[in-house]
Design a protein that fits this description.
single chain; mainly alpha; 7 helices
Length: 189
């Protein structure tokens, strides 16, 4: 009878250990998905920032009197290259989005620039990258949401520390991007 109890306890121990290993592996997979999601954003943002010098170069010849706009784009690119972590990168990305909007708006005043094939291609490429980045941000936030919820749930909460899991920061849009643009229709009198 004693041997049956030992076998039962050993079997129960193996089942509990297997369950804990499964929980640990799930947490590690979630953590890896968050890291992968963030890496996808970084890759696309890097591609966007690699296009910026080309875009500025094309614009410089046409926009002689718009130096401030071009400098804002260059400054935003530099800030991104020095950004650390989601919050800092989100702010740098917001600054870049604003600078690019200004650049594209000012470009409307230069018909020759708008007709330039290089400018049109670069503008299309940057716009495409902006859309892809927005999609990847959504995936990242979903991965972070799953991570943050899971590490607070039982039994994961007991294993999260051993798996090296901690709450992650969501990718948040900067306040200036959430404001509606001012539109005025000023007609000459």
């Amino acid at each position: 009878m004693g041997i049956l109890i030992l076998i039962g306890l050993a079997l129960a121990g193996v089942i509990v250990a297997g369950y804990l290993v499964g929980v640990f592996n799930q947490l590690v997979q979630i953590k890896v998905n968050v890291d992968k999601s963030w890496s996808n954003i970084e890759v696309l943002e890097k591609q966007r920032y690699d296009e910026i010098p080309k875009l500025v170069k094309v614009c410089e010849g046409y926009m002689k009197y718009e130096r401030e706009t071009l400098e804002k784009v260059i400054e935003a690119r530099t800030r991104f290259l020095n950004a650390q972590g989601p919050a800092d990168m989100a702010q740098a990305g917001s600054q870049m989005a604003g600078a690019l909007k200004s650049l594209f708006a000012v470009a409307e005043n230069y018909p020759d620039l708008k007709a330039n094939q290089n400018f049109t291609q670069l503008q299309g490429r940057v716009t495409q990258l902006e859309n892809e980045i927005a999609d990847r941000r959504e995936f990242y936030n979903e991965s972070v949401n799953i991570n943050n919820a899971r590490i607070q749930q039982v039994p994961y909460v007991f294993v999260a520390g051993m798996a090296g899991c901690s709450p992650r920061e969501m990718y948040k849009v900067a306040a200036e991007e959430t404001k509606s643009p001012e539109i005025s229709f000023a007609f000459p009198k």
